Amino acid sequence: MxxxxxxxxxxxxxxxxxxxxxxxxxxxxxxxxxxxxxxxxRPRLGGMAFSFRRDQLSVDNGQHVFLRCCAAYRWFLDRVxxxxxxxxxxxxxxxxxxxxxxxxxxxRTAGVPAPAHLxxxxxxxxxxSPQDRLRAxxxxxxxxxxxxxxxxxxxxxxxxxxxxxxxxxxxxxxxxGVLSTATLNIDPDQxxxxxxxxxxRTGVLDHASSGDIGYALAPLGELHSTxxxxxxxxxxxDVRLGHRVESVTPEGxxxxxxxxxxxxxxxxxxxxxxxPRDACRLVPELTGTPAGRARELGTSPIVNVHxxxxxxxxxxxxxxxxxxxxxxxxxxxxxxxLDRVRAGAQYLAITVSAAEGIIxxxxxxxxxxxxxxxxxxxxxxxxxxxxxxxxxxxxxxTFRQAAGTAALRPGARSGVDxxxxxxxxxxxxxxxxxEGAVRSGVTAAEAVLDLPAQETMRFEA
Length: 461
Fold this sequence. Notes:
Blueprint: H1 2-11, E1 13-16, H2 20-31, E2 36-40, E3 51-54, E4 57-60, E5 65-67, H3 71-79, E6 86-88, E7 93-98, E8 103-107, H4 119-123, H5 130-144, H6 151-154, H7 158-164, H8 169-184, H9 193-205, E9 213-216, H10 220-234, E10 238-241, E11 243-248, E12 253-258, E13 261-266, E14 269-272, H11 276-282, E15 299-309, E16 318-322, E17 328-331, H12 333-336, H13 338-341, E18 346-352, H14 363-377, E19 386-399, E20 419-421, H15 434-448
Parallel strand pairs: 1-2, 1-14, 2-10, 7-16, 14-20
Antiparallel strand pairs: 3-4, 5-9, 6-9, 7-8, 11-12, 12-13, 15-18, 15-19, 16-17, 17-18
Helix pairs in contact: 2-10, 2-15, 3-15, 8-9
């Protein structure tokens, strides 16, 4: 028995952290034939994309969408048998509202290849003057010529680049900022041009269908925790929730606290899939490696304001807003279960990215401000009764995706023997998104097994 335990420890991989990166790493290691233990301090999986109960409703902590080009996250959905609980647009279609009653749509033309697939949408984009629409089209062509892997782009900001291409403040606010702020969670004047180029090229400009938007039709907890845990169990992964890791040594000794008991798990390799400061705390040796610089990444917050009306106030499943504190809102009536407990009511969730300016604003003020703004954007909301309104905050929603951060993002190999890193903050080539998180987990798993390049998973956009 002792020999069997020793042999198991020589093969076992321990994954620290049960977010999307950790779950993806565990699944990939299991698929490649390794025994895996996944340790998560919280009583659930899912990391930053989760759900919680509020009275009779299931509430997502924030709105998390994906695009057709998010091949890794779509693999994850298939792998945990959750694709059927999501929807994906047939073609990109974003309604953009303004509080003066004007609106526009960013809709790709079916059957037209990139980049011409957006020509008609820009030509009809009534929130910009005809002259600015032409300038926006030129800006799109300039963005398409950028190489996201060019290190020189990372030291520049998106705002600087757009101004150099003749993009006015009006164009940035009504078009480029609508997309970049939501995906990079930072103002265009601070955002890394390299990451912005990745967003616009891979997500919108390179392939016509890449930007089609997908989102969950069920609470995120059902996808990222319930379905994920079932898939892990079916793959033989030993999942231990409520187990807080206290330290990791290069020798593969993982000290774990569960309730009042401390124990040690021994492994051949450890994938640390937690935020960078936590990773350096768990593995102090990281501070002496280039990976230790990731502690300098910083974070950016997101605020969500949830509003429940006594009646339906919009037919839109989601929309963006310009010239308004409301950046995006999403209809969460069905996913929350409101449709089953209060017929005819509607639940809208507002997402405010790059929320440094409001992260500490009292909830009562935020509720008043955003309920008023929704009524300006949606006239039927002025006649509706607000049944409930509440605020959720993610103070450290993403790493701060500012210019100059590429040098701070380590690869999966940490520089400490036996310790591998995963998380959307690592060097995935993608912004801090669900896609980046899954890619990082798969990459870390393949680094553990030292797979040759020809045997690694290929996620095509």
